[in-house]
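Hello K.,

You asked for the raw outputs rather than the summary table, so here they are, unedited. I folded two proteins back to back in the same session to keep the settings identical. This is the first:
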Amino acid sequence: MTATDAKPELHLYLQSARDALLWKIEGLSEYDARRPLTPTGTNLLGLVKHVTAAESGYLGDTFGRPSGTLAPWMDENAEPTDDMWATAEESRALIVDNYRRAWAHADATIEALPLDTVGTVPWWPAGRGEITLHHAVVRVISDTHRHAGHADILRELLDGSVGMAANNLDVPQNEPAWWERHRNRLEQAAVQAAAQAEAAQAPSPTSPTDPVA
């Protein structure tokens, strides 16, 4: 496979991650789309905002093709997590539209440049920021799929919805009672394994010391 031939396959996996991530916020209330669901504040709309900045940066600014969307981490006044949550003033429609525009810009970069094109990541340390377009695309694919996985778990915690994609759930379609039994079986296995591990670490009983003659 040549570098040019790799582009369609790379784009396929990138687009599948994009679509999965947006699917995970469909049908949710404003509150559920935004509310923090982990101790570190991970939330669904924030994940979309984050990958928007990643695409704009790695597949735009890095190759001298600014999209007009400044990655929050390039702003000196930004807080470290500004790209991971949506303010009350930022509508869901705005964030989704920004993401779609970012990926259209990224797709144009992938189409326009050879995969061995070298760019410089603006926010990486000086002298260490050079990467090829191929590297950048793979990095964005990896990051987007990782966050789509986060979104999958968050959505299940919110309302029980599961699946890899709208047209390919890739999850057995069993009744809730079956899943409850399955979960209980896993819980019992975990408890049993923990008890076995604890028993294995316990000191062995020692024989009483023979009396000294």
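The second followed immediately with the same parameters:
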Amino acid sequence: MTGDRPGAIGGAPSAPHPIPPGQRRVQGWPVSHYGPVPRFRPERWDLRVFGATAAGEERAWSFDDLTALPHITVVADLHCATGPTSTDHEWFGIAATTLLDLARPAPEVTHVMAWAEYGYGANLRLADFTAERTLLATHHNGEPLTAEHGFPLRLVVPHLYGYKSAKWLRGIEYMTEDRRAPYGVWSAPSSPCSRSP
């Protein structure tokens, strides 16, 4: 899982490069969340896709089922809406488009809600969820995600601020219109679904 291996989207980690205005480069990978880190219980854990599916049915995968799906590698920076930017993260996981192929949205779907533990939700335009570099990450820089950074599954949407990359992902809801996301207490509930750095 190296950034320069064939098939990595976004290229190899690079020399320092420009970051968006208003952001400040930080070393390492700061932890940002409110509340306790959830405990992973594989016998109870699943990822559900529900809402306005083309088939009108909910789909669910165990963690083992997900890890058997094709994977991609994406190299990208992570921008926090409060200002920090950490660069050259190597993410490994399932492309969001793979999930969409397995559980197709109805034609009228325009948005998704990414649901995580503790009722956290991140609303996204369908176009952001289907972007080439959007993935459901299981690994970071060649190692399984740590619990503090979202193990077992984290949504990664590199072109949007980090609060849209929900940690501890549990479900994707297809929606036919945008809806306010139930954010954690640290995020502003009026944040637009397409906010990017």
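The CA atoms of residues 110 and 126 lie 5 Å apart.

Happy to rerun anything if the numbers look odd on your end.

Regards,
P.
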